[in-house]
Amino acid sequence: MSEPLAYLRELVRSVRQGWDAFFFRPADPTPLGLVRIVTASLALWSLFVLGLDLHDHFGSSGWADPALIRQNQLERQPWAWSFWFLVPDSLLRPAWLGCLAVFGLLAAGLFSRIAAVVGWIIYVSTVRRVPIALFGFDQVISTLLFYLMITGASGQALSLDRFLRRWRDARGVAASRAFVAGVGRLVSPRIPAVPVPTVSAGLALRLIQLHLAFIYLMAGLAKLQGPSWWNGTALWGTMMAGEFVTRDFSGLAEWPLLINFLTHASIAFEILYPALIWVGILRPLFLAGAVALHLGIGYVAPGLAEFGLAMIGANLAFASGPWLRSLVAGRSGSQPALRVLFDGQCPRCRATMAALTAADPDHVLEPIDLNAVEPASVHPSLTKAACMASMHAVAASGKVYGGFDAMRAIGGRLPLAWPLAVAAWIPGVAWIGRRVYNRIAGARTRDVPCTDAACSLPGQGPASTSPDRDRDPREPPRPAPIPAQEMQPQ
Questions:
Q1: Helices 112-129 and 92-108, interaxial angle, to 10°?
Q2: Strands 400-402 and 392-395, how do they pair?
Q3: How far, in whole angstroms, is CA 452 from its chain's centroid?
Q4: Per 3-state DSSP, what percentage of the chain is helix, strand, and coil (rounded to 5)?
Q5: Is residue 474 predicted with pLDDT exceeding 90?
Q6: Is the peptide bond before 189 cis (omega within 30 degrees of 0)?
Q7: Less packed terminus of the chain by CB within 10 Å, N or C?
């Protein structure tokens, strides 16, 4: 019996290890952050549209009679709940605006854990209060919100929560007067630019992935029960339906083979998706197929466009985090995209660079203190006087930007600053921006230089000869340098 028992022990051990590896392996939270943005934005849009006829949908005398809906729920789902039943007509508008604000916070990733919980409560309450408007879109959104809520991982990437944490850390570094030879004052946060893989993010992504596989499998099996899917005419019937379709597709009657191909291809995709999406080499093909399928549905039936966007957003759970970041930051070998020279002796400049590096998605910027290097070594056209007058940025291509144009170029590389960077290209904005920037830069203050009069102590000689004259009390004594591997952000 020893061999069978050993086999069973090994089987149990392997199953346990496989279970843990499948559900609890740390994963890059970047795809989950993108799922959060899409889900919250669609939920915000859906609730906004309902609010256009707010009292008709939620009012006591609207289309959805609250007494009849509540009675029906008590008969079929006695545990069902919705806070909208408790909101009087006079408070519907403030409550609606508050709900929109919650989804706005969730989309931005601000107070994301609390916003995910409250957002799920709002959406489920809305669906149960207005069941006459319920369809597949609402079920997908409420499911995604549920997974974002129970794992609490949605704000670990692509969120203001993460930006604010890195910004606070960067301000601490900038205020500490940390210095590295050849780099100068440090202004970058010690928190890594690339989000650290976490178990909670991996669990959330895995649950979404499994739910997607189940949805496609059930949809495909249900279609197999209809004869029109077997003979290849199902899509033609959909294109001719008047409920959701607003375009005339009758011309496709001359292309029956195309209709047959699209019909069989769509059902084959749904049947094969649950099994083959897990194969790494095939995953990009199935993700592209999902995008094509749902965009096609949205084109044929514009009334289902929101459902298609929700499904595309859910499919982002299978996307690669490094690939998603490369769409913004570029390939790792192409970094840094901009080398930024700033005045490390200017508190305002250090604070500005701290905010910019906190928003840096993946070491797109390389801050360089112009007091620690010769500007000409970064680019031959740069001089110390020009760099002292304004911030300069040097692109990987060798192009040099100065002042307002440098800030605009930097903003174009940082996702959080994209709206400002786009606005900076509006005619007339650059003209105003350059003058405002020059005025601010010309009035900036710098750290007080240490002189005999300012720093010397009675009876101890000139302080200018002391190697610790600019030392912060929290720093190790100079001239011993701070090791670069400790102070340089990872």
A1: 140
A2: antiparallel
A3: 52
A4: 65, 5, 30
A5: no
A6: no
A7: N
Nearest C-alpha neighbor of 38 from the set 310, 308, 299, 295: 310
Nearest Cα residue to 25 out of 159, 209, 214: 209
Read off the DSSP letter of residue 179: E
Element (H, E) at 365: strand 365-369
Q: Kindly report, residue by residue over 293-329, the tens digit of the pLDDT.
A: 999 888 888 888 899 999 999 999 999 988 888 887 7
Whole-model pTM: value is 0.82
CA 31 from centroid of its chain's CA atoms = 8
Distance separating alpha carbons of residues 406 and 403, to the nearest angstrom: 5
The tally of CA atoms less than 13 A away on the side-chain side of residue 375 is 22
What DSSP line would sit under 391-448, residue for residue?
Answer: -EEEETTS-EEETHHHHHHHHTTSGGGHHHHHHTTSTTHHHHHHHHHHHHHHT---PP
CB contact burial 179-203 (16+ within 10 A = b; e otherwise):
bbeebbbbbbbbbebbbeebebbbb
Residue spans of alpha helices (H) in 109-255:
112-129, 136-151, 160-175, 199-223, 227-231, 234-240
Greater model confidence, 61 or 483: 61
Q: What is the pLDDT averaged over residues 251-275?
A: 89
Percent of the chain residues topping a pLDDT of 90: 38
pLDDT of residue 370: 87
- Structural element, H or E, at residue 338: strand 338-342
Distance CA(112)–CA(465), nearest Å, equals 52
Question: What is the number of other CB atoms lying within 10 angstroms of the CB of residue 35?
Answer: 25
